[in-house]
Predict the 3D structure of the following.
Amino acid sequence: MSLTEEKLKKEYSDKVVEIYTFRGDLNVILKPQDIPEICRFLKTDPDLKYNFLTCITAVDYLEMKDKRFEVVYMLFSIPKHFRVTLKTRIEENEEIPTLTSLWSTANWQEREVYDMFGIKFSGHPNLARILMDEDWVGYPQRKDFPLTYEVPNFSYNKEEIDTRKNAPWRGDEWPNEKQ
Amino acid sequence: MAKRETMILNMGPQHPATHGVLRIELELDGETVIEARPIIGYLHTGIEKNMEAKTYLQALTMTDRMDYLAPLSNNLVYVGAIEKLMQIEVPPRAEYIRVILTELTRLNSHLVWIGTHAIDLGAMSMLLYAFREREKITQMYEFVSGVRMMASYFRVGGLAQDVPVGFDKRVRDILDTFPAKIDEYEGLLTDNKIWRNRTTGVGTITIDDAIDAGLSGPSIRGSGLAWDVRKSNPYSYYDKFEFDIPIGKNGDCYDRYIVRLEEMRQSLRIIRQAVDGLPDGPVRIDDRKITPPPKIEVLTGMEQLIHHFKLVVHGFQPPVGDVYFPIESPKGEIGCYLVSDGTKKPYRVHFRPPSFINISAFNKLVAGRMVADVVACIGSLDIVLGEIDR
């Protein structure tokens, strides 16, 4: 058992929902409201020193898991070279506390998650779209957002675009491949 | 006293010194930058979304297009994530060739960086020199994969094919000529008075600020932090090679320049060790559910033909699960977060883009400095817009 796992189990046994290792990666599943507290603990604990927020991202488990989104945080400890993945599951309209007060790098990364998935981070100083246009409708990385196409909307092809837009499509499916 | 007014100046998206389509909204008081807000997204093509609709092999070709100056680093992070998920052990020869080519990629990326960074600051001839050497590396890509830029040469379980005869001679040729070229760059820039004035003390960032802002790669090493993913979390065969991590002292543009130059020398050191120890043997694993059989077997055996067909049409299916795999790209830590639902297509792929996170700290570098320093700071962060916007 790694040191991080031991410490988390000891200090936060009531808050850690699940903790497991997969392919050498330590994964910790938490409730959304506990994320800032656990991150602060991991960042300041003298034996762990997870001082580097590597990455924030999200996954849309539409109709696969009971809660729709999973927000994923990767922390790295520069002095100790540990890595840990924190995960939290939220519903579509749930908010999740921001990490901008702990790391300024969370600012843009949370904006990207908001832009792509529509997940709102409460307390974020400037939760605006970052990659897509400001007036874009929808959240592109959601699984129910069709990949199909986005072409300039002219009068002659408007109807065609509208019908194709409404059909979710996961790439070029071969007709007989479902085994 | 009259009220002080600030001026908003848009720099870009079409500006030669922004290295792509980056727009920076500068709030100016006279010539002093009060705040710089990078505005991105002009090159967003939805690579992560597109990859979800392709098989694992098809999606590989999209990774080259993110950081198009370091295509093979992106290949490596993507195939590395799949290999971690599928628990594949890659043959030694393939790993050695991967190390050689990703280090050449680092040289390639740093060469383009030094050329464009110098031309931004007025040293015209550097670009020509840097591209002269870069040409050898793109020719090397062409030699092994047939493509000069978007090589897509790495495959899950090894390489697309073995390198052609004469590979090590060509690598040694680069190794022999390159150190003198780096000295040449140093002769042009390192003690150049104009270069020093334009970069020393410009864009300074402390270690703590850099960690807080998530900087990685040469951008954080310039501040004096000796952290390199190749050392801290060794992947591929990097733990077998000897090399040092160059660090700066002050965290300014000049230190980042010195760090990158020294990194090129260290890359050459790694390549030399790898090419000296290059073993013989297969370049792909022998699992027919993951890698296609050799062409000659496809043409002569029924079962092999079926395997080939199944792999091309249906691909392979990694087990359900998710992994994060980080490597040291020329720009910093690039990581691939891969979620598999057990089908032939990735359920979700996310790249930790070093350029994206480095540019998010841009305001810290330039606030309080002159407009002319903005260009120096963009250059010294070494960003690629293809990777920022994906």
Chain A has four helices and seven strands.
